[in-house]
């Protein structure tokens, strides 16, 4: 069975922290292209995910899931 990535947890965490996507981009230092990939549930490098985790003070499991297609 094929697997894919979901960043739904990230969007829920941003709501909980009352942040929008632009604020996340500025606080974490990620690019607009990376933010677009997040919105499309596409693969990102681990270094980008770590930047997001550092900005939100969380772990990778708090912002993404691997799900069955």
Automatic annotation (TrEMBL):
Residues 10-63 form the HTH cro/C1-type domain. InterPro entries: Cro/C1-type_HTH, Lambda_DNA-bd_dom_sf. Coiled coil: none annotated. One of its GO terms (molecular function) is DNA binding. Gene3D superfamilies: lambda repressor-like DNA-binding domains. PANTHER family: DNA-BINDING PROTEIN (PTHR37301:SF1), DNA-BINDING PROTEIN-RELATED (PTHR37301). This is HTH cro/C1-type domain-containing protein. It comes from bioreactor metagenome. The lineage of its organism: unclassified sequences, metagenomes, ecological metagenomes.
